């Protein structure tokens, strides 16, 4: 007979024990809180951009002369049409991509144009299913022709008292001209890059944990470090092992993939369909393998750095799982319509690999693009390795007796004046999650205006979490956030506006170049302009300058930069915080410009040690931006379109003024005033 | 010779949870001397051993081992010491031979030197059976022997042991005692952290007490018993630990 009380007692104790595990709390509460918003955000930016590109992409269709009467109904902004007496003779142009779709006459109708004709014009829409532009073109022209068919049918049957099924004025068939090899490559090109990338990351996942925290837990790292070998050599040995494991995984994947396609699926393909042939040459296999080497090194360096920061294998898994999830998002690039390998995408980590692998499978790759992708992968690898060596410190391996993470759950002494690096990451994640979950509710609420919504967002989502953390853990808020009145220096307040203007000149220059290559969506300018239509001017300036200046500075400089600095040192903390500041502004077109402003504000904070100086600089920066929008909203777009470079004397002047004024900024005093 | 001067160690300095473990430790161990280090759990004994072995950096102070400064020549210090403890692990997926071979290479032994050392080790510890056994399949005693074998491969002048008898059966314990006696006869310097008072009593030597982050007492076993007026070492330990 089961004793319910005993079972309940065991259950109670186990639950208490389990819920007191900080790692578990990280896994079941914090991770979902952070990872889903981040994934959704990344995904929406990523896929949203691509979909927008697909929607706006102009496609070219060649039509037969017989349809010229319907030109005005067929052409749209994105559908560029032209006519030819014999479109079927232009098949080569479709193959080369000069046209995205051809409409050819399959069954001619001599009387088609006559009003009472009941003859059917047979059309064949030719397209290449392996090119998304061609797909889009055939879909759009099909829809347009269907509309015309429906109208013609109604018009010509109007007085004849016949059922609509009786007559089809236009008959349409769609034909795919892609070769079986290309179709096969396209099909696998959507999936296989993702599989190869995920497999290689998974193999790194386990080996990175095993060789770092796994060794720490088993005590063998201590044994190894006792031998007279420099720490860097041990790290490099481990790093090379992880790279080798990844490459082994990639090699086995390619081997079996190639084998399966050459001998397995190919044979099956013959039986099932002659339309699908998958072939991967040895040369391509070799090139893929070579490309995977810098990628493997990047993944190995990244995963090893992260797992070395953990104290246990469980903790390492908790760190690496979200990292892995985030890295998987760009690996699906190959399958996203609208994503093409270009000189820009070839530089994006993982995205470039996914697109390059797809290009290989489809057979549409160039050596130049391959070399660019390879160079970009090497660049990513160099950045990660620099970061990894910055993070690896032999002493940290045994110097983590007291868990920094535990500080999130246990009170800290009231004398502390700086949050920990982990608290900084935790608070950023929390703010990002809250902004994602509640941001839309606050900003687009019918009960108040968008500007009031932004004010609430600043106060409740950006300012409140770091303040709550500091209050809860009994920090001295004024000292922790460097808000002492004694740190305000009049000289800095006079200099900062001039330095801000210099920075803004460079930000504008960057934005002009960015807009030239990647034009900002029109609705972005309209959005900012609309602030002044829905709220009083003073309220827009109050929220946009003073509130945003203060709240964002508390979060980014006062909390995150200061926290990260304890772990990463000034320079890396500055770069990381600026990147997070850019990412936080969500709009892809603002990210880098905001990141640059973040660098300036971070520099200012490190130099002056006063958050007041920062709030002032931030408010000043926003005031200039808002004033520009308020004054030149209508003509701003034209200026952007016409100008690529600001006058060189202006840029040099701004640089000189900035460098000179840097020397006059009054730095933080060495002793800490509470 | 080991000379430790004014060692301070603070974990997570200037961070919430800052922990001062060592607050000015001074200790000198002469060549050929056996020094025991006693102290309660969490007193900082392992931290001190790790600092001496250069596994951990100290916040302040100096460590000289065999006339090498730990800050400027950590690798020379590692060559001078053989460190083993209950927590130094074995590579479970390697065989005993592979394990020793790897560390032989790490210590820069050539093939002939390694073969000679392996011969000596197998004679000393009778670990022939273990050499072709994966470390995961070894018993606790065999694992401890392999650990010691690894620590003596390069024949260092100094041995540092952190609780070497923890969790061992009587036979293995006797093996450790034999090893210590043998090394002492060879004139090696020994620094041993232990809670095994019977071992301290049996082997004799100097005993230092690490209490509240500093060395409070450092005297011989005989002086310990005599000065405390107790008739056994456990009571003498209590006397000094609470003094």
Any overview of this molecule?
The complex is a heterodimer of chains A (674) and B (243). By secondary structure, chain A is mainly α. Chain A has three domains: 57-178, abc type-2 transporter like fold (3-Layer(aba) Sandwich), CATH 3.40.1710; 181-398, no CATH class; 405-662, no CATH class. Chain A contains 22 helices and five strands. Chain A has helices spanning 4-19, 22-56, 71-74, 91-96, 132-156, 180-218, 220-225, 231-272, 282-308, 313-331, 351-362, 367-391, 394-398, 421-443, 450-472, 477-480, 490-517, 522-534, 537-584, 588-608, 611-642, 648-662, and strands at 59-64, 79-84, 101-107, 121-127, 170-176. Chain B is an alpha/beta fold and 243 residues long. Chain B has helices at residues 45-52, 74-80, 96-106, 111-125, 128-131, 140-152, 170-185, 197-203, 221-228, 233-241; strands spanning 2-11, 19-29, 34-38, 60-65, 68-69, 81-85, 158-162, 189-193, 206-211, 214-220. In chain B, helix 6 packs parallel to helix 7 (170-185) and helix 9 (221-228) crosses helix 10 (233-241). The mean pLDDT of chain B is 88. The chains are: A mainly alpha (674), B alpha/beta (243). The A-B interface holds A 218-220, 222-230, 394-395, 397-399, 401-402, 404, 406-407, 410, 412-413, 416, 418, 420, 473, 566 and B 11-12, 14-19, 50, 53, 55-57, 75-76, 78-79, 81, 83, 85, 87-92, 103, 106-108, 147, 150.
Question: Which helices and strands appear, and what pairs or packs with what?
Answer:
The complex is a heterodimer of chains A (674) and B (243).
Chain A: H1 4-19, H2 22-56, E1 59-64, H3 71-74, E2 79-84, H4 91-96, E3 101-107, E4 121-127, H5 132-156, E5 170-176, H6 180-218, H7 220-225, H8 231-272, H9 282-308, H10 313-331, H11 351-362, H12 367-391, H13 394-398, H14 421-443, H15 450-472, H16 477-480, H17 490-517, H18 522-534, H19 537-584, H20 588-608, H21 611-642, H22 648-662
Parallel strand pairs in A: 1-2, 1-3, 4-5
Antiparallel strand pairs in A: 3-4
Helix pairs in contact in A: 2-10, 2-14, 6-8, 6-9, 6-10, 6-11, 8-9, 9-10, 9-11, 9-12, 14-15, 14-19, 15-19, 17-20, 17-21, 17-22, 18-21, 19-20, 19-21, 20-21
Chain B: E1 2-11, E2 19-29, E3 34-38, H1 45-52, E4 60-65, E5 68-69, H2 74-80, E6 81-85, H3 96-106, H4 111-125, H5 128-131, H6 140-152, E7 158-162, H7 170-185, E8 189-193, H8 197-203, E9 206-211, E10 214-220, H9 221-228, H10 233-241
Parallel strand pairs in B: 3-8, 3-9, 6-7, 7-8
Antiparallel strand pairs in B: 1-2, 1-4, 4-5, 9-10
Helix pairs in contact in B: 6-7, 9-10
